[in-house]
Amino acid sequence: MSRRTLQLPSWLPIDPYILALIGTVVLAALLPASGAAADVAGGASTGAVAFLFFLYGARLSTAEALDGVKHWRLHLTVLACTFVAFPLLGLASRGLVPYVLTPQLQSGFLFLCLVPSTIQSSIAFTSIARGNVPAAICAGSFSSIAGIFVTPLLAAALLGNSGGGFSADALLKIGVQLLLPFVAGQLLRRWIGGFIARHKKVLGYVDRGSILLVVYTAFSEGMVAGIWHQVTPARLGALLAAEAVLLALMLAVSWYGAKRLGFGREDRIAIQFAGSKKSLASGLPMASVLFGAQASLAVLPLMLFHQMQLMVCAVIAKRRARDPQEALTDGAGVAREVAPVG
User: What is the dihedral sign for C-alpha 158, 162, 164, 169?
Assistant: First the structure.
């Protein structure tokens, strides 16, 4: 068999990291941490999440973020997609209980709708589609920063007790475990920013390893608690169908809504790819803090949606790249907003 026949189609990007996540889930199912081992894993997971958000803060260039405010209409549009349109659709999913989704899966589905957008994949797909890459960079960064503050507040307001008992204590944990490390990273960036930039690849493995540890701990707790007996193949199929509808709606809303607002082709591409995505890297650590023992079911919809968005957006980006270049003005003669950002 030739090497070429072993390669996956270019339009079907199975993320190797997703395979690592699946392997971690299988490991947790076969060898869940319990007793003293669970305490050790839980402590290590807590430290890993704090370190993860410390790195997020240390990587963020404040100057670049402030420079991106020039394109404020685009960023507000992406934030509206991420933290208004998505949550409204998530709330509408309550109508799927109990016939399509269980209450636990619906809580995870709603949590998926509350997490911030991605950065890396939004940039990559915007670049492939010949969109406004600087705008995608800033939009993804702003969404990630806003998510650190907005996602816990939205979760407390919209999920209530279904999310594992949100309380002032839960929000305090968010502040100590996520916000403080993030702020510390920002404050220390002046001295450690160069080191982080030089070791970006190695620290990227630290990022992913931290998230794998969080997943292992969450799914181990779920196995010990026996909550996985609540999920059947039929329920998983229904969840995938609901997520496919969610993704299709947000792709349409972000694209046609941006067109209605007068954005040009390059900006609409950035809005669509940044406004229709959800971040696995940000959502998993937050879920581990907010949901506790219920985190394994809470992150399942996010993990499935993450892979789905990669596959679908890869196809869309390739097709957008083949679109003929539009004129510098639209049919109404309104100039496109293509000023570079950052």
Answer: positive
pTM of this structure: 0.75
Sole residue written with tokens 């997490």: 115
Amino acid at 200: K
What does the angle CA 236 – CA 238 – CA 243 come to, to the nearest 5 degrees? 95
> Over the stretch 230-274, which tens digit does the pLDDT of each residue have?
678 888 899 999 999 999 999 999 999 999 999 999 999 999 999
Backbone φ/ψ region at 166: left (φ over 0), alpha (ψ -120 to 50), beta: beta
User: Residues 114-162: pLDDT tens digits?
Assistant: 999 987 788 888 888 988 888 887 888 788 888 888 988 898 888 865 5
What does DSSP assign to residue 335? B
**Token duo for residue 332:** 């109404």
Closest CA to 147 of 189, 120, 200, 111: 111
C-beta neighbour count of 16 within 10 angstroms: 8
The total number of residues written for the chain in this structure: 342
- Residue position matching structure tokens 């190797």: 16
